[in-house]
Every structure is written in C-alpha cells, then in structure tokens.
Amino acid sequence: MVNWFWQRRNRTEAPKLRSRSADLGRKVDLADLTPGVLHFLGQSAYLQLTLFENLSRAVSNAPTPDAKESLSYVASLSLAKHHGLTALIRKHGSQPGVVMQPFTAGIDEFQRRTSGQDWAETLMTCYLTAGFLDDFFESLAGGLPGEYAARVTAVLDGDDGAERLVELLRSAIEANPRLASRLAMWGRRLVGDTMLVARSALAASANHDRDEERIEPVFTELIAAHTRRMDGLGLTA
Amino acid sequence: MVNWFWQRRNRTEAPKLRSRSADLGRKVDLADLTPGVLHFLGQSAYLQLTLFENLSRAVSNAPTPDAKESLSYVASLSLAKHHGLTALIRKHGSQPGVVMQPFTAGIDEFQRRTSGQDWAETLMTCYLTAGFLDDFFESLAGGLPGEYAARVTAVLDGDDGAERLVELLRSAIEANPRLASRLAMWGRRLVGDTMLVARSALAASANHDRDEERIEPVFTELIAAHTRRMDGLGLTA
C-alpha cells in the first residue's frame, strides 16, 4: 500500500507561506510500519487530547478576549478530532480510556517537556507539534486495515485552524521583536521531542535496516515542513 | 413578557436526583431586568468561555484517560454554547472580542475565586456554577427582543453533560469519603460568588424596590436548585 505523503491541503500553511507544491506527488511508503488499529487509535486519540489541552491552556492565558475567542475555535477543531478517533475506538467495540492507557505516560511526558514557559511558547507548541504530528499520523493512517484508513484520514484531514495560530504568533512577534530569538530556540527544541513521540508510534519490522530506510525520508520531509512553518513566522529553524 | 423560569429539561440533574416537577409552571418575570442584547450576549459568551476553561482545566488534571475523555465531551458542549453565542454577536454585526471586553475583569475575578485547589473542587465548580448560571441566563433570555429570545434559549438549552460531572464527583467522594466535608464547604462558598456574577447581569430599573421584589424569588429558586445538586451528591448545602 502506498501513502501519498503530501496530499496537501492548505491547512497547515498560512496564506502567503511558500507553496508546498514541490512536494506534491512524492510517495512515501510507511504502511509496513503502521501499528495495529487499536494501538494507532489509542495513541493518536490521546495525543489529540493532549494537543487540545495545550490549546485550552493557550485560551486561558490569552491576553485579550479576541485571542481567547479565536483560540477557542482552534481548540474545538482539535477536540473534534479527538472525539472522531474515540468514536472509532467505540465502533471497534473498545473503551477509549482502556485503549489510550498504554500511551499516557509517554505522551504526558511529551506534554510536560513541550508546555512552554509563557503564552507565546505555548502557541508555538500548538502550531508546530500539531502540524508535525497530524502530517505524521495521516501518513501512517494509509496502512490501517479495511475502512479504518479512510475513516481515520477523514478525521485527521479536517481543518486545524493553523492560520489563526500563525496570525496570533505573528502579532506577538511584531509587538515584541525580542520574542523572535527565544521562539526560534523553542521551535528547535520542540522538533526533537515531537520526533521522539512520532517514532514511538511506529511498529518495528524484523528488518531494522529496511525500517530505517523507509523512516528516514519521511522524517526528512516532516522536518522540511517544520522548517517552512518556522520560515513563515520569520524565524530561523 | 413572561418567563417560564422552570421550563425544565432533565439536563442539570443526574438520573435519580429528586425531580423538579414541583417547580414546573412557576412563573417568574425577570424580563424588565434583562440587559440590552449586546450586554447579554457579551457577558454570557464570556462566561461560557470561562466555564469551558474550567472544564478544560479539569480535563488536564483528570487522574485517568477515561475521566479525561468523558470531561472533554462536557468541555465540547460548553464550547459549543460559547460559539453559539459569539455567532449571534457576529450576526448582530459586532465583534465578539469587543462585545465581551467590558465583562472580562469581573468574570476573570470570578474565575480566580472559584478555580478550586484540586481536581475535585474544580469539578464542583464546573457542575455548580454552570448549573446555576445556565438556569439564570436562560431565565433572563426571555426578555431579549425579537428573535434573540428564542435563539439564545436554543443555545443555552443544549445538553450540558452534567450527569457526567455528577458521576465523576460521586466516584471521587466514594473513593475518598473525607472529601465530602471539604466539597460541601466549597459548594457553599461557590454559591455566593456565583450569585454575585449573576446579579451583575441584571439591568436596574428606576424602581429599586420593585426590582428587589422580582429578583428575590428568582434567587430563591436558583438556590433551591443548587441545594438539590448538593443533595444529589450526598452533600449538605
């Protein structure tokens, strides 16, 4: 089974960011490394819940009711993805709490490490980790059996409101240019922790070297997309 | 215009709680004291956002993925109410951020005072303040002009997921019976702060004594409903 890794929507890019059309049509085959259905659903559902928690913290700490209202919409999109995934777990005949349990310790630690020290850092976390992980899990979803591939893709492919996060981040940097270097550093740190969480979702096959061969170009592309997000904010990746 | 104060749905009651049918048909006229449309929408929208923030904090602090998942659903209901109200503000041709601004200081202070010291207290806040304030704003909504009365009522009348909060609170008290007296005290304190926020939403007429005459039975009923919520948890109000 072939995954079309860059079936691009415009959703993770703000308008005016560099087009990703150069990547269109690039095929990356990760299907061999897609974990079992319940592993996939449990891990991605708990991760989406964590992304929602980060967004709701950003809502609480937002400096204006305008920013709160805008972020609350982004939070609702993330929550809808979480509920779309837990609905698939229930459809499978399983309990979301039970299925998510094995992934809580690792993802809670990821959340702790990426929570950020202030509102701007939290916004960066919301933008960059969700962009990276939604791309990654969508690329893995193609390897799910039966109808799960299409159903999970439909859930993850929904609007993620990234353009609102970009707008708020740009305003924050404009209002306080000294933020830029701190946020650039924070963005670099985030990518490491985010890659670790993504890797933990991959099933290992018997052939370790072949696994690495397949994983490497995927992560190269994920990091390239991360770099474009940073560029779009005027930050050095 | 007459408000039917206790047009009861079963939504704020857990199954097996005492029926409120005794209150059905009781008429309370608060329409004279309903503030202007934008005042009402701005204040209730910002309040709903605050209730959502409290719920999302409860999601983040929940001890199990099961509790997180259940609470995230309650949070999504509260967020949908907030977005229903901001949609009405936009339909009016106004900006939600601007319209909510005058109410942020008072409501932020309410949120600070009612945040609770741990997860169980936060859950109590989510259950008791949302129950009280949704009832209150629904009773006021009847005094809104034109289509606003029906539209706001439709938004506020939606399911609020209270039965899930009751279930989690009962389990927490069962697991740790010493919680009961602390939560009973917390519930008593909450009602005072919640009443203050509710009163701040009332427009004063020229006749202060008549205002008091109308307000008093409404608050008597709101407090009675609060007492039933406490009873339902096995707590002394």
Explain what you see.
Two copies of one chain form a homodimer. Chain A contains nine helices and two strands, in the order ββααααααααα. By secondary structure, chain A is mainly α. The radius of gyration of chain A is 17 Å and the shape is globular. The N terminus of chain A is likely disordered. The interface between A and B is medium-sized, with 30 and 30 residues.
- H-E string of chain A: EEHHHHHHHHH
Query: Order of strands across the biggest sheet of chain A?
Result: 1-2
How large, in whole angstroms, is the Cα Rg of chain A?
A: 17 Å
Number of E strands of chain A = 2
* Oligomerization state: homodimer
The termini of chain A sit apart by: 33 Å
Strand percentage of chain A: under 5%
- Number of helical regions of chain A: 9
- Structural class computed from helices and strand pairing of chain A: mainly alpha
Main sheet summary of chain A: 2 strands, antiparallel
